[in-house]
Write a structure and sequence with these properties.
Strand 1 (about 75-80) and strand 2 form a beta hairpin. The protein is of the alpha+beta class and about 500 residues long. Helix content is about 55%, strand content about 10%. The longest helix is centred in the N-terminal third of the chain and has 31 residues, at about 5-35. Its cofactor is heme. Belongs to the cytochrome P450 family. InterPro entries: Cyt_P450, Cyt_P450_CS, Cyt_P450_E_grp-I, Cyt_P450_sf, Cytochrome_P450_monoxygenase.
Amino acid sequence: MSHLTTLAVQSTLLLGTLLAVYTVSRLIYNVFLHPLRKFPGPLLAGATVLVYHRQSLKGKLPFWIKDLHQKYGLIVRFAPNEISTIEPQAWKDIYSHRATAWTKDKGFYGKDIYGDPPGLIRADNAAHGRQRKLVSHAFSDKALREQETILKGYVMLLIRKLKESAAENNGKVNLVDWYNFTTFDIMADLTFGESLELLYGSSYSPWVKALFDNIKLVQLMSVLRQYPPLTGLLNMLIPAHIKEKRQTVIMHSVDKVQKRLQRQTSRPDIWSYILRHSSTAEFQGKGLHPTEMKSNGSLFMLAGTETTATELSGLSYYLLHDKQRYTRLTTEIRTAFPRYEDMSMHTLADLKYLNACIDEGLRMYPPVSQGLPRTAPPGGAQVGSHFIPGGANVQVAQLAAYHSPLHWKNPERFVPERWMEEGEGEYGGDRRDVWNPFSYGPRNCLGKNLAYHEMRLVLASVLWYYDLEMCEESEGWLEQDVYLLWCKGSLMVRLRPIRD
């Protein structure tokens, strides 16, 4: 063996030894010396991040976190530097206006794919406040009233296309697809000033397909960011066709936003409000930067589409498995509106049982099922009944919080009445303050009011025109994985028209 070969072998052995020593010492530190060592949780999960990442890549993370809370209680350490809490007070302590020292976990969110300055999701507090104040005009009550005609036009198209689809398929339709077609068409019109025409074509466009395919890659990238030395190598292993789909998603928003900004229109879409207020004295020279526009355009499309369709799908599933509550809801809707023309934003908001069903659907099947991690300030901070050391990442795990017997009576049962006055006697002890499906504080969902109106209008319209019955092949529909979003299969129902 030559001197160089011997040196190479010795160097390799030394590197391997150093790596092994580092790994073992890191494990020992995480278990016995880490600032979070006193928090309850699985020993192995506290020792190495690999346990957490394995659950994440399997699509089981929210369910695993839920099981951990069932075993360990209100607060759990599920990775060396990660804490999950389901204490109601945690929302105020981590996400509220007074929790400004808390920052978004950079390892989880990564960099904005559209560049700097980033859009609403990754902006710092000052930039976020400026952007949100400007964008909020597009989601005001005034804007919703002006956009109502647009929404109702797409919902009427949905009603017509459902009838055609049922006639062509022996009465069967896939509600997941049709809800997606509707929400994507609506949001594309409001965001880009033009429909994707999914309802007309009765199929997904290449961009929407790429968007769904890209979700798993986003989850994978959030894991890869935890291994900086390996990120470049692992990126090389991602198949080219997956990278192409990611590029398709990125460029679609860029092209659509640029096209919309070049068009003069009086239609009340999101950009008409943003552009109108950008020229006011308050925002003179403080409008949205081009990268902020692209990033926020992409955000509006994802946050205002799949999540709404998810809630509609899950709620439909629960209603069709509960004949008594399904009948009560359809009776309320059909009695309230002798004519479909009477159905509006304001009249739908007055339907107490419809609103209770939507809220219970958001509890049972929250579109955002996992937590949104924040990093504790350097000096640490109090979260509920626990002091969190500085630098630790903390989240309120939504699925776990909404299904915890510590907060809800009969947490696994679909009970809309728990949200109504009539349910106070039995369910008055429910901790509703732990329920924030649109998040909490200054970074909560801007489109909450739009989402509620859209869900009411779509569901009420479908149930006003049709009777629905679950098909046998969709009985196990809730058995889904989660890669940031729920991986929904087909929700097949039999549809019977009750009106012309």
